[in-house]
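Human: I hope this is not a bother. Would you mind checking the protein record under this note? Thank you for your patience.
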Amino acid sequence: MKSPARMHFEKTLAAKQTAAPTGAAAVPAEAGIAAKFRALLGSHKAILKAIQSKVEKANVKRELLPEYEPYVEGVLSAQSGAQDDILVTIMLWRLDAGDIAGALPIVAYALDSGMTMPEGFKSNIAAMVLDVITDNEPTDEQLDVLLEAIELTKAHDMPDEVRAKAHKAAGLLLEETDPAKAFEHFKIALDFNSKCGVKGRIDKLEKQIAEAEQNKASD
C-alpha cells in the first residue's frame, strides 16, 4: 500500500505533467508519470482480459482503482483539457465498479474538454456514460447521481435509445416516491423511444396523479 507522502508526490507530478510544455521543455521526471500509469494500466488490462465474468471484472476493477487516485486528482487539478485516454479509462472503470459519484467529476471534465473515447469504442463519452450506468441498473441510493449524469450529458449527442433508457431508469426509481417526476421522465423516455416500454406506466401514473389532485381539491 502506498504511503500518503507517495500518493501526494504522484498527484503533484501528474498535475504538473498535464500542465507542462511538451518537447524539449518538458521535465523528464514529470513526463514519466503518465508513462508509469500507462504501463500500470496495460498490466491491469491484461489481468482483466483473462477474466470472463463481468461481475468478477467489476470486482477486480474496484480493487485496482485506488492505485490511480493520485493520477486522477493530479490531472483534474491541472485542468489542461488535453485528451487523456488513461483518465477516460479510469472513468469507465469507476462506472463499471458502481462508483458513479466518483466517475462524474471525470465525466464533467472530459465533456467540457471535448475528450473522446479511447480507440476501439464506437460510442462517444456521453452515450457511454449513460449506457454503462443504466446497464448496471442503478439503485435507489444512486438516483441522485443518475440524475446528475443525465443533466451532465443532456446537451451532448447520443442515440435516442440510450437517452430513453436513462430517463426510464430514473422514472423507475422515482415511481414510488415522486410519481409526478417519474411521469416526466417516462414521457421523455417515450419521446426518444416509442418502444422503450413505459406506456403502461405513464397511463398508470397519469390516473394516480389525477386522483391525487382531485382528492386535494376536495379537501
